[in-house]
């Protein structure tokens, strides 16, 4: 006996029970043991930032990772299952700042770096535990507890090693340049962090007059949207080849930017070079020190502003480069937090945004403001704290990309990207990438192991061991390779012996994640270290081993990695960079990328918008399987619109499969049927036509799903599954009801086998439902049955019987057309009919009985359909004028059928030849027939009814009514009844046997009204 299935599953309860079962029986450990000798499948997990609980966004990626690892496991692959956490950098720091209410770097330093570091670690500890809990609930199988943490000393040392290699190649340099800068975070922001950080913003738009010192009454007109940069002005640039003109007001602008105004004098830009002018803030000390002059610059834009450009090398990237080329001085007006330095007098201490208004007021007072307004434009903000970025000169550390660009592009070409356009995006990124700015002026991050000495020697330390060797003290107080502790260690310069300090900067967080294919797999590590990844800050968080080099050889490169598209310029990029630098090869063979997640209405999800769904809420309201289905149904090249209503839609779809399983259980129990496990794989060909079809249909599902998994396209897995469950329920089960009724063992075995194969196929996507049904449908069948669907391996795929499937495709087409014809004739489905004619679908020859039964017709015949006649008329708008007075003549001849059809579809009639486009041809039905046609197949139903057919329709109605009453009365499908029919239906008893067979009536009597009682 099978345990009956309820009308619909309770997802949350069912899933919690399965989690309990997996853990109780240690199914995952059994699976890994089973595959231990299998071929390797190397998946490397991109680390998730450990600063949050599991959200539905993160659950998407985790689902895809789990789906393909489960699939590969079913195919017998040996895998690592190592999960990773990203634990350093601004994400973590900003969270701690928020928690502690700290608002600047000064406040962090006052709080104390050691305390700050401990707080950061506490966030990682809390979040990683919570993410694991959420991921387990999602059904993700990983080697939990043996995760890698990027803040481990091991990881840090691997990055040091990489930096040392880069330095030895001469790629590492310290640059003095203007970079995008977040004044709140007090650090520069590198190019890959900028993409996608642009927002629309209103800014001031000022035209400023700079009086010319040697031309009284005249001035240069310049334009700016950043008033705070004016105190840093050192020059004004003109395009030498452009024409410039003096307006009535005495202001000089480019002729092209004069807006049609008249000029009293014009000159070439080249003639203006060298003019001296009064700077906008010469009353402040830094400005007063500069001699302001007009300089030439070919890049001056003639599409905005005045054609004369304000140059402040301390406040812009282009200005900085230009300043370098022309040896201009660079004034840097603001400090790390974006406040004016003391030497800027009345501006001192003001933020750049606060300074705008007083600056404008001052210019107006001085008569230097030609116009002031606002402009709306795209402006970059900090990706973490959303503060508008400024430009600032900073000394940063860079890795030059000149020598690695082409090798990286080469390596990228060896990678198979899904979807393919993401590979092109990567190439595009590589073509345009600038030198990698790897330094951040922050606290909780990879300490850059750079020790520059006054003698010119730069020492880059490659390991803790090397640090110990060069240090001027012991490393006893060095709890972790981290600030503040590491800042106390000094080394002696190998060149001159002087004591040298480490630079204060920490590293870009993408170094932390990019090194993972090396640091977690034991690259160049001479001996295996038990628990070796649990050192430094990771101590006590993980028991993961640091493997040895042969292990790295086995598992590198990854066969597959998967993350969101934005990781192209982040993790996919940084690990490609580090891998090509260290080995010359790509670190992954295949990538699955995917787009963004929005809510079900296409809006971004935000806590403050009230449209955010937490993973916990989703687990409770739809269940993990339905979430996973939503993620997997998503084509990877489109944004996912996630929500509760798509979830309900999926629950409805799932019910089709669930009902089919429940149907099986019900009838198998009535028949006392126990399936044979042997017949699951390689069952002998079935005898019954429909069973043979179901075998072929199931084989097709397995083939399609296998292809989809191999192509990393979950959406195709689900399409195949949905179409299969539809066919199973709407065709096989419905067509076979009578056989189930009769306890037909072959039908029950066929249905069981296909249900089980289907749940195996879908198990990577919906592990809970599949496991639950496996427990209900398979485990009770035999002691030999695998304890879990995940221990059962992948179903053997047999080539589907294409001929049979093709025949049935025609059968369905005919049935579909037959139904359509019935609707046209307004004949309900319970009304039996005499005859159906079919033309153009010869493959249905062996299945006429099936079709007759399905469409309730007495006979189906393949025949020429002459139940129609052609009506041919001239198309007058086209041919009317040509035929002229012959129109009535032609019409009469066509009506009378006095014409000859031509090969081209035209006709010869009444001495004229009419082409196909000159004719209107219609197929009109003959009296008593209804026609439906599509794609070369035509069916015709004989709509004539006689008394016998009408009586049968009433019998069908009665049977339908009685069976509804049986259900409403809560009768079991096998319960017998005593039936009473009203006197008006006495004539139906002509079909006594038919009625009693269909309603399980022991007897039928005539009485007052239709009623039934259960026979005991
Ligand atoms: Zn910031
Ligand atoms: Zn030195």
Layout of helices and strands, plus pairs?
Blueprint: H1 11-25, H2 27-35, E1 48-49, H3 56-74, E2 84-86, H4 90-100, H5 105-111, H6 113-138, E3 148-149, H7 153-168, E4 172-182, E5 187-188, H8 191-194, E6 198-211, E7 219-224, E8 235-238, E9 243-246, E10 251-254, E11 265-268, H9 269-272, H10 285-288, E12 293-296, E13 308-311, H11 317-325, H12 352-365, E14 369-380, E15 390-399, H13 405-412, E16 416-418, H14 421-432, E17 436-437, E18 439-440, E19 450-452, E20 458-460, H15 464-470, E21 491-492, E22 499-500, E23 506-507, H16 509-514, H17 516-519, H18 549-555, E24 561-564, H19 571-583, E25 590-594, E26 597-599, H20 615-621, H21 624-632, E27 640-642, H22 644-671, H23 689-710, H24 714-735, H25 737-741, H26 745-762, H27 767-777, H28 802-824, E28 833-839, H29 848-855, E29 857-862, E30 868-874, H30 876-883, H31 887-895, E31 900-901, E32 907-909, E33 912-914, E34 919-925, E35 929-934, E36 937-942, H32 947-968, E37 977-982, H33 992-999, E38 1001-1007, E39 1011-1014
Parallel strand pairs: 1-2, 2-3, 7-10, 8-12, 16-25, 24-25, 26-27, 28-29, 37-38
Antiparallel strand pairs: 4-5, 4-15, 6-7, 6-14, 8-13, 9-10, 9-11, 15-17, 18-23, 19-20, 21-22, 28-36, 30-34, 31-32, 32-33, 35-36, 37-39
This protein binds zinc ion (2 copies).
